[in-house]
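Reply to dn_fold:

You asked what the input looked like. This is it:
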Amino acid sequence: MRAIPRTIARTHAALLLVGLGGFLAGLIAARGGGEALARAQDHAKATRSGVKAPVEEVLHCPLAFAGVHLEKAEPSRAQVAYHFCKPVHDGLSQCLLYDGTGPDARLIGVEYLVGAATYDAMPAEEKAYWHDHHFEVDSGLLRSLTQAGDEEKRTLAKVRTLYGKITHTWSRGEAYPEGPPRLFWAVTGEAPFLPPPAALLPAEVRPASSPARP
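and this is what came back:
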């Protein structure tokens, strides 16, 4: 058999060592990557078990309502809002506002609710951003999505005593939220904040005799 020149043999040996080294490095890296992945998974488990996003608490809270909001600067613009609310403390609740209740519902804004004591202590310029819920509750334009009967009446009686501050960020049917946030208002029954046409009301608060919404 023909002998392999020494220079070629040395080259082949060097390549073999490089390849073996790369293989071992790959094994070490894979093992290290696996350990890193395991650590990340353990961290994720700890996070899932020890930390909850605030929205989880909101979605498990029974305070959910359907109502209609009017744009403060242009009250003829009405938007149905589905409220999912959670008390923060005795004097404050906060609500996430959606345009529906299905899986594709859009997050359209937020509403903050405070009691009369907090409202009364506000400076006059701040009060201009807050509205009451008297007419909205009395007229049936605000309804619970999760309660009925006496339980709903008790909850709405409490809401009636609160003042709200509403900001909508997605209010004109755009493909995505456009422009600045807009201040919205409750239906107060006093011009110009009058009830919108029944066809614009959510089914939950629409009178039985009203035509179906197109």
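The CA atoms of residues 59 and 103 lie 13 Å apart.
Hope that clears it up.
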